[in-house]
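This week, work through this protein record:
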Amino acid sequence: MSEIHELTPVIVGVGQASERPQDPGYRALSHMDLAGEALKAALADTRAAGDAARAIDTIGAIRQFEISRPDAKAPFGRADNPPRAIGRRVGAEPRRAILETTGGQTNQKLVGEFAAAIARGESEMAAIVGAEAISTVRALLGAGETRDWSEEVGGELEDRGFGLEGMFDAELLRHGAVSAIAHYALFENARRARLGCSLGEYRAAIGELFAPFTEVAAANPHAAAREVRSAAELARVTPRNRIVAEPYPRMTVARDQVNQAAAIVIASAGKARALGISEDRWVHIHAVADAKELPVMERPDLARSPASIASIETALERSGRTLGDMALLDLYSCFAIPVFNVTDHFGLAIDDPRGLTLTGGLPFFGGAGNNYSAHAIAEAVQRLRERRGSYALVGANGGFMSKYSAGIYSAEPADWSGADRWIAVPTPTEAVRKAQEPAAWLTVETYTVLESRSGPVAVVLGRNEAGERVAANADLAHTPTRALFEAGEPFGVRLALSVAPDGRSMARHNADE
């Protein structure tokens, strides 16, 4: 008889589901149907002798993109209670149904939260499940077709809201940074400025980082893009690989047009034994640390996320392990900068023989909305069962490097009877003051150039004379200013500011100053 305490939380099942419009037998599944397929696969993966679906007392549903913002729309309708809609597809009737907030860290966060609840005896078996069907939605709309995916399920629901507080800044929005790509491009160019790289050199570095990811994706049956690409191919700007926001070519950003779902089932050791789930299916949760970053405009260094690093370091410390002990790594890769943030801090080589992704990464495997890291955890669990004694780190990023949850996993037992292995990391307190009044000038810290319907837009972040953070748009109709930004080297340049009729700050470069 195992000595593992009956309240020890263990992952007992993982499942993934996917489909592509070009696949034979393509079914054009809804979000809820695809999520149900993943949960069904996770329950089968437990190899339970008893009815595992009926044993689930908690389901945490990850928000699909269509319901992740107040202004988002679900073209074909939505379920009123996603966790219960998914649960009823497998015969689960949970006592507790949770619709989690928005963010790519949420599934990793829920692993820690649910594991801690199980360790306290508040739950016996919980499931985390999510899905995206963006590719199907776009394919159907493009073909002029409609579907009715609305579901009236009813029942208790713990809706945790969107969780967007502190993420969006009115000044950044007003100046055109309305998308994730725009925000991450600002961070990326801030890192480029720190390193002193040209645009060409930096695009080459992104290509070198991501080329090995394409090899992993090519071998993954659930990947959206299964072509191996060279570093040079990823970095080369072409009509097909156009710039979507400087410095990003299209192939190097998260691919959201996917139909992917993943599920994770966690049980107490006692419940797992009662269901006849063999211990060779168990993977232990050694630590999960969850952190929040300062709002973008208040961050002292726009090229780094210390909260993300604190999350990883805290999880490693609580697990009693080091990064060198990790045989498996999955670093969240919606863009290059969250990966570089980790490799820079820990001195990891981008060609580390362990690899930096288990799935192929968000640009190639696919950016399944808020649910990507459930796929990474599923891959880690499957491999750890085969590599007993090994450890895995999964890093999950949310927002604009706003939230980060890191998890440490192994088939080796983890003792939850002592120190808590689910940790909330304090938010950094050293903040930059935002300018409250219009400034006369700014010194450029970072920028990006975006395409809009009316032409290119340059978003600039910098500091005024008092060291306060200022947002502006570079006046690209002004020839010296346009030349400065087209050259890609505006860092440290002082720009004069004026206020446009619509209230935006407009920045101009005096080449003679």
Remarks:
- The mean pLDDT is 96.
